[in-house]
Amino acid sequence: MTKVTDKSEQVGKAQVIFTPSGMRGDFAKDTSLLTVAQQTGADLDSVCGGNGICGRCKILVSEGEFSKFGFTSSRENLNEPTSIERAFFSKKELEKGYRLACNVFVKDNVVIDIPPESQVQQQLVRKAAGKLDVEAAPAIKLITIEVTEADMHDQSGDFERIQEMVEFETGIEDIEISLPILAQIQVALRKGKWQVTVAIAHKESIVAVWPGEQTALYGVAVDIGSTSIAAHLSDLSSGENIATTGQMNPQIRYGEDLMSRVSYIMMNPGGEVDLTDSVREAVNNLVQQLVTDSGVDKSTILDMVLVGNPIMHHLFLGLNPVELGTAPFALTRQGSVHCTAAEVGIDLNPGTQVYMLPCIAGHVGADAAAVVLSQAPYKNPDITLVVDVGTNAEIILGNADKLVAASSPTGPAFEGAQIEHGQRAAPGAIERLRIDPVTYAPKFKVIGCDLWSDEEGFAESTAATGVTGICGSGIIEAIAELMLSGLVLNEGVYNAELLDGNEHLFQNGKTLAYRVTPADEKGQGGIIITQNDIRAIQLAKATLYASIELLMDKLGIKEIARIELAGAFGAHIDPKYALALGLIPDCDVDQVRAVGNAAGTGARIALLNVAARREIEDQVLKMTKIETAIEPKFQDYFIAAMGIPHKQHDFVHLRKALPQLPVLSAQAQDAAPTRRRRRSSRGGRPNISR
Q: Domains of the chain (ranges plus CATH)?
């Protein structure tokens, strides 16, 4: 990856940042954008050699002031569209900022979004839907009725006769109907020979009508994460999950983390409209993909449940989230939201209902509420910690007596951003890593290949993708392994005493780095883990750990009975490594488990069972939100948690699984003659299951 240099060194150069990968670099002005992509390692397709024939290198120019990057990105920072591009794109597409990278030349700093269709190896959105043990009792009901045929002796309208039959069949009096559905009833009645099926929502209104008998009824649950969006199509009658799909959240082009997006809105008046439009377009695309994959009639999708953190919640609903950017982090609305698909720009049946779960508090949103609904710690007597790990981690702690919640702004480091060779999860990314305790040599697994790098056939199996970088789960394991091997000390710095004669540890400027894949004959290239990489992970994990400790203080507890790691990222972390890094407090390793996309599961439960909506609304009102940033002890807890796994806590439960884990207590460290002494035996190594 080309390094971003100091601004004083950028004379005659332009900084180019690619989203969603985060790849970036400084290049001479007038460099082809396709060349920039190739040299930074950005995942951009092109099969015609840059001749403008294939159209596979389509990109989107991001517009606006990006305070995080320190510059304003604009189409004016590129050359004018060429005749090839004018022939390839419509005028509307060009106005939106679409270009062909092979025809673009960089004039000044710019942010470039690579859409999914232009990526060779698209990021994996790993949010699969498991089977739910929940009664199918949805908010939408279908009833088929026979309506008296209109005649000259009955002056009542068609809808009034439908009202009469609905009351006769269900007992619901004076049922309502919206104007778009009202416009459909006369055609439906006559086409169905006066038999129609109506869909009734919340025992209040008719939201769809079909001629004759209709039995198909579907709903969609959507988890809008800050990095990715997952959607699940369910049969509302049986509860069966029919199809699942996902994609990157296109809002990444405006900032990788939530505060960057709020900052973008603050710096670009009207920018909230762009972010709202982009997320709604993504949800529409996912709904269409679900319909295509399943063959379901789109008109039979009548319910949608959405969850997301407060900023995603606000932006999807078209609410400006700027108040969430500063204290006291006021929500526009905490409670659940009911509206129609048409009101939020979703292309479904005009009467399709949309339900957004309640937010718990500022920065603890509807996604956290969905996690609570999914895991139900309020039904368990044991103290349970539920952590949804992401760019903004949500933390729930407690039991049937009391639940407390907090958010932790961990940032995007856990997803590969801010890491020298970090990347998001995609084929070719290192997701598992081990270090030999004697030679310090690494071996690893990459996404898309079941073989370890030292096994026969690995090179052939990864020839198509190569080894492209290291993703979040990979960097977690790598740093934990560096600590367990003695290459990294408790305070998070490389052990300089192991530098001599070590081909894997090397001088990298003023600090040290660890080499994962070989460099070329000039010593250039290869995947490395720098001191800055370790520091980025330390900052993220210390923020999370300190927040959890504050919640433990609020409950007056010293131990946690079980820990559940939620989210797509949490599902791919080995519990031993999560503990060894100090991502979470000490706990019996057997009681630490991944629970998958709990937010998406909670959304599906609320979709299938209307009583579950009332249940979580009640629980949210009982929960206590802790604002960790203003807690007096936060800084002390944060500094102690910078240690790997911790500067003070000895992790006695983890030591049962890893008996040779270095002694971590402050007293033991103070008593030691030196914290940097070399091991007496290189063979001493914790026994992590391989």
A: 7-118 (3.10.20.30), 140-211 (3.10.20.880), 414-536 (no CATH)
